[in-house]
Specification:
The complex is a heterodimer.
Chain A lengths: L3 E8 L9 E8 L4 E5 L6 H9 L6 E6 L2 E2 L10 E4 L11 H11 L4 H14 L15 H14 L4 E5 L7 H18 L2 E6 L2 H7 L2 E6 L2 E6 L1 H6 L4 H6 L6 E10 L2 E5 L4 E4 L4 H6 L6 E6 L4 E3 L11 E11 L3 E8 L2 E8 L9 E6 L5 E4 L6 H8 L1
Parallel strand pairs in A: 3-8, 3-9, 6-7, 7-8
Antiparallel strand pairs in A: 1-2, 1-4, 4-5, 9-10, 11-12, 11-14, 12-13, 14-20, 15-19, 16-17, 16-19, 17-18
Helix pairs in contact in A: 2-3, 2-4, 3-4
Chain B lengths: L1 H37 L3 H4 L14 H8 L8 H32 L5 H13 L6 H10 L6 H9 L2 H11 L4 H9 L4 H12 L1 H16 L3 H6 L8 H12 L6 H32 L4
Helix pairs in contact in B: 1-14, 3-14, 4-7, 4-8, 4-11, 4-13, 5-8, 11-14, 13-14
Bound molecules: adenosine-5'-triphosphate and magnesium ion (MG).
Keywords (chain B): Cell membrane, Membrane, Transmembrane, Transmembrane helix, Transport
InterPro entries (chain B): MetI-like (IPR000515), MetI-like_sf (IPR035906)
Subcellular location (chain B): Cell membrane
Chain lengths: 377, 286
């Protein structure tokens, strides 16, 4: 068991002008793998540390399994945490590092031995048990930190950027192992990262934060396909979603996205929420993912109306894909294409917007018109 | 060309090593001398020209020292016992008190923290002589003259030790403390299982200078102890030496006593110095 509930939680550090965590409301189900993601300084660690009991809660309530824990000391919250720098006890061997938490909780000696050796087997580090932390590589330390958490069999795991000190290959590998581990032991996990790729690949549900405020709580699929505002749209996805400023007009029963260079008809599916939003009064931002854009080649012309002229400025080969940076007046857009393309830097090309997959945001509030429109409908 | 520059530096190194070794040996001479002197039989002391090395070593002077101490009423062993008791209790308590104080100052926030720090800093600047009289008044005022407390108490608050440990403990990452908290440690547990072991190098350093300070101290014995049975070995040796003046006959006893004062210092130094180096090398704390 290990469900978590935040109710209107605030954190304002002493001497700070604004709260670092602002009206945080969230429920985490038992056994869930929840990811907190957001740019540096958005309050992810602060949230985690309040949950762990390492930081006072300025206002609001936190519950674990319906038990009010605001004033419960960290050791009584039955939580294990994996720190970014691993925080292994340098004076103790790997075995002792993992055993200490159990020892302090007066677990029987044979039980400690059983649990530590089992964890060591799961994490494939049985041969490291006698070593001291300074004799381990970064990846091995990371394992020990993980092992120290799982032997405790706590209600909740907290992980604060546990992979950020690993190199790219090891990070990807450990990411997969963590997911596998979670699917075996099924302990509620709150995982903090500033890396959206990590968030998208690991989380079953993702919380996007900015300036201490929750922006969106959703599945990776929903975050990607229905971001609620410009921030989430720009933050999730790599390369970034293309964002173009303009407005919407209606001619002969068809909505158009227009600015100085563009006049793109908007498919009928978008009409309802646009109407609900009273779009004619607003300056909007068109958002479109790089993979929903193409450089038009000879035979495959698609929808001519969604096609505009642009100049190729830069190309990045990313292995399977090529990112083509094209300029369109003031805007630089990214088009995601296959690695093998005839396009060269400096070419005048025609790029096409797949307006079926377009997003519209209010320029002033940043909010998605679709979400606001659906809510209003 | 590489071998040439290599040979050049190694020649320089060789000269340096020879020079430094010679210097070290020279500095060692008084110690070697006192060693030899302590084991000389009486007749060798009167030889002319005087010999540096002992020819027929004997433990005669040590026996004299242990069994009967001139005409004094207090046996040598009593001084020795006093010294051992006072030094070990003081050392233990200084380590416990200093590290506890330093942990709290380095890692906790509390009212008047910077004032506390400032007071410790100020107390570092007092020359010991300036506090002798107020100390005497306090010790005799609360009736601690002629008790072991009179020896121990003046040493317990060691600003140098606290200061050294504050610097050391503040370098222990906060995450370690948080990790052990989540692992279920109480404050006492954090202190005993994390802070103390990780401060070992600093504690070793403190042990060396506290031991040497207390073991060779004669101030508490001469100021607060009027009862001869409460005085320490260092005081006894000191009075023995000053009582000797220029008489030749007591020289070997004086050397033996001096050696007994010196040896524990050396042993403690070697013991803890090794620890200082070992922990420095193996410490995983960045
Ligand atoms: N002890 C503190 N005292 C004052 N302000 C703090 C303290 N700790 C964090 N803050 C502030 O709170 C805000 C949130 O910090 P937090 O560490 O939670 O960010 P984060 O999302 O974990 O960022 P990162 O990805 O860089 O770790 C920041 O603006 C930071 O300056
Ligand atoms: Mg952080």
């Amino acid at each position: 068991m290990g469900s978590i509930t935040f109710k209107h939680v605030y954190k304002q550090y002493k001497g700070e002008a604004s709260p670092s965590v602002n009206d945080f409301n969230l429920s985490v189900d038992d056994g869930e793998f929840l990811v907190l993601v957001g740019p540096s300084g958005c309050g992810k660690s602060t949230t985690l540390r309040m949950l762990a009991g390492l930081e006072d809660i300025t206002q609001g309530e936190i519950y674990i399994d319906d038990k009010f824990i605001n004033y419960t000391s960290p050791k009584n919250r039955d939580i294990a945490m994996v720190f970014q720098n691993y925080a292994l006890y340098p004076n103790l061997s790997v075995y002792e590092n993992m055993a200490l938490g159990l020892k302090l909780r007066k677990t029987a000696k044979h039980d400690i031995e059983l649990r530590v050796t089992r964890a060591a087997r799961i994490l494939e580090m049985a041969h490291l048990l006698e070593k001291k932390p300074n004799q381990l590589s970064g990846g091995q330390k990371q394992r020990v930190a993980l092992g120290r958490a799982i032997v405790r069999e706590p209600k909740v795991f907290l992980m604060d950027e546990p992979l950020s000190n690993l190199d790219a290959k090891l990070r990807a590998q450990t990411r997969a192992e963590l997911i596998k581990l979670h699917s075996t032991i099924r302990t509620t996990t709150v995982y903090v990262t500033h890396d959206q790729v990590e968030a998208m690949t690991m989380g079953t549900r993702i919380v996007v934060m900015k300036d201490g405020i929750i922006q969106q709580v959703a599945s990776p699929h929903e975050l990607y396909n229905a971001p609620v505002n410009l921030f989430v749209a720009g933050f999730i996805g790599s390369p970034q979603m293309n964002l173009v400023k303009g407005s919407i007009t209606r001619q002969d029963g068809v909505n158009y996205f227009v600015n100085k260079r563009l006049k793109l008809p908007i498919p009928i599916e978008h009409a309802v929420y646009l109407k609900n939003n009273d779009f004619r009064q607003r300056q909007v931002v068109l958002g479109i993912r790089p993979e929903q854009m193409t450089v038009v080649t000879g035979e495959n012309r698609g929808n001519e109306q969604w096609t505009v002229n642009a100049v190729v400025e830069l190309m990045e080969l990313m292995g399977a894909d090529t990112f083509v940076y094209v300029s369109l007046g003031d805007n630089q857009l990214i088009v995601r294409m296959e690695a093998h393309t005839e396009v060269r830097v400096g070419d005048n090309v025609q790029v096409q917007f797949n307006m079926n997959k377009s997003h519209f945001f209010d320029q002033n509030t940043g909010g998605s018109l679709r979400v606001q429109g659906d809510a209003g409908a | 060309m590489a071998w040439r520059s290599l040979r050049k530096t190694s020649l320089f190194d060789v000269l340096l090593i020879i020079g430094l070794t010679a210097l070290a040996l020279f500095m060692l001479l008084p110690i070697i001398f006192i060693f030899n002197h302590a084991f000389k039989p009486l007749n060798e002391l009167f030889l002319f020209p005087p010999t540096f090395f002992v020819q027929h070593p004997t433990t005669h002077s040590f026996e004299q020292l242990f069994l009967k101490s001139g005409g004094d009423v207090v046996p040598f062993t009593r001084y020795l016992f006093n010294s051992i008791l006072v030094t070990s209790v003081t050392l233990l308590l200084v380590i416990v008190f200093s590290s506890m104080a330093a942990y709290v100052i380095a890692k906790k926030s509390f009212p008047f923290k910077s004032l506390t720090m400032a007071l410790i800093l100020v107390s570092l600047m007092f020359a010991p002589e300036t506090v002798q009289i107020p100390r005497y008044l306090i010790i005799s005022g609360i009736g601690m003259s002629n008790t072991y407390f009179g020896h121990i108490l003046p040493y317990l608050a060691s600003p140098v030790a606290v200061f050294l440990l504050i610097g050391f403990i503040s370098q222990i990452p906060n995450e370690l403390i948080e990790a052990i908290k989540l692992d279920g440690a109480s404050e006492a547990g954090i202190f005993r299982r994390l802070i103390l072991p990780l401060s070992a190098p600093a504690i070793a350093t403190i042990s060396i200078f506290t031991f040497q300070g207390v073991w060779s101290d004669i101030e508490t014995s001469s100021l607060y102890m009027q009862d001869e049975t409460m005085r320490t070995l260092a005081f006894y040796v000191n009075s023995l030496l000053s009582g000797l003046h220029n008489s030749v006959a007591g020289q070997n006893i004086a050397a033996a006593a001096g050696l007994l004062i010196f040896m524990p210092n050396l042993i403690v130094f070697l013991l803890f110095q090794k620890k200082v180096l070992a922990t420095m090398v193996h410490s995983g704390v960045k």
